[in-house]
Design goal:
Elements lengths: L1 E5 L3 H12 L3 E5 L3 H8 L10 H8 L4 E4 L2 H7 L2 E4 L14 H13 L4 E5 L7 H11 L7 E5 L9 H6 L3 E5 L3 H15 L21 E5 L1 H32 L3 H9 L20 H14 L5 H25 L6 E5 L14 H11 L3 E5 L4 H7 L5 E3 L3 H5 L4 E4 L11 H7 L4 E4 L6 H6 L3 E3 L6 E2 L9 H7 L6
Bound molecules: uridine-5'-diphosphate-xylopyranose (2 copies).
Length: 476
Amino acid sequence: MRIAVVGSGYVGLVAAACFAELGHEVISIDNDTSKIEMLQRGEVPIHEEFLPELLQRHRGKQLQFSSELPEAVRKSQAIFIAVGTPSTVHGDADLSYVEQVSREVAGAIDGYKIVVEKSTVPVFTSHWIRRVMLLDGADADSFDVASNPEFLREGTAVGDFLYPDRIVVGADTERCATLLRQIYEPLTSGEYYNRADIIPNTTKAKTPPQIIVTSTKSAELIKHASNAFLATKISFINAVANICEAVGADIKEVCQGIGTDSRIGTRFLNPGIGYGGSCFPKDLKAFSSVARETGYDFRLLQEVMSINADQRARFLRKVRSALWTLKGKKLAVLGLAFKGGTDDIRESPAIEIVRSLLKEGCEIRAFDPAACDRSREVLTEDGICYKASAYEAAHQADAMLILTDWPEFAQLDLPRLKTVMTYPIIIDGRNLYDPRTMAAAGFIYSSVGRADVQTPVARTNGKAEKTATAAPGKNQ
Ligand code: UDX
Ligand code: UDX
């Protein structure tokens, strides 16, 4: 199948590379010509596991890059729209990029094609795309609009695409549904999983996914409802973690106890500093706004968002509680990305926390394995510098904060860390360590939903006496 994917961001680029991997002829389009030139040169603009391998494998063969949308539309049978849908000031989705692309597609259409929403969009968007395309002169029989929501998590997006739990296709005509079934056939038939050179996935079985065909409106709602439900799970467990802290219970034990009920499940039950990223915050606002427009006040979503915001404020209180005063404190910050495995800092809780600490006069030494360059562009305040490793960030730090769940942050050499830090204090917003391990290693350790470790401080760097007086928790 010949496919055009409009928008070469996190979603569009992964989708384009994976469609090529499935054997389709793909043109990845973007109106950002510098991004397209970069891709044509073989550079990879984002940090995403297996994406470099796929681009290397298919660039110049199954996969082309271009800024010429009309030409790509004429060459393709399916046009996927994966441009950004940011929040407006009112919280609803800004669909102006989607509209612009739909108009350009309408002007280029020259035979039956399907136009597929891949970006997260509110219900009725397919209706609007159809309407603007008709108004811009596209013949009513020359196209169908479909919805094919993505469920790709950044960091594992290639694996999520090639080993999906399910594929959702919203199509209002059989002709359109048939084309979409054909596009995903290498996955749904299992053919892809029998190839010798497939992209591996250690966490998923090579089971062909089911394809769920619905109306376009249902598919649009499935996307918003999925993200809203996952965010609700996170806020729910964060709320329970807060109760654990108050009563002295352990959230990890509680999660194990409730998550093993197969009706609940263990995934997306990790408490922390709240969800961020380019999807959950914007989608929750947009879904809430969609509900309001239909006359339904979805109050649950307001509460999910409010718990999420509180979680960051609570973390800052933990930092204060561990350090007493903040002005002039040297803090090692591990992690700036909104989650591990990505260089994306959009709506990152880590960035927000760093900003608050800078405002309070802290000196931040930050390290992130992938997100430092992007962070430099947005964190322009004085008082932050970037380091090349966790240990460099920790050098002479008064405390260390863990803000992103990169796997390597869970495997630090604790004795080495203790030697380089001025005071052995760690405030872990991602629960990467067992408090007992931290107690045994001689750290004062605070995490989310578990009792703090207030170890009598062993001598480090000859600073034992100073430590004992400088780092009391408020509840000591
Ligand atoms: C986007 C949406 O924000 C998200 O809701 C959806 O689920 C998937 O698509 P993402 O891929 O992360 O997510 O967006 P982004 O990284 O901003 O990429 C969008 C790309 O579209 C950019 O490269 C931008 O240059 C391009 N674009 C934007 C166009 O090519 N044409 C336009 O008119 C507007
Ligand atoms: C999300 C959806 O999961 C995916 O299906 C798609 O629709 C795009 O949006 P993404 O935002 O890339 O993916 O990452 P995800 O893994 O869902 O994490 C989102 C945020 O929630 C991150 O900030 C993460 O740290 C946080 N999170 C996730 C938790 O705090 N606890 C958890 O248990 C899981």
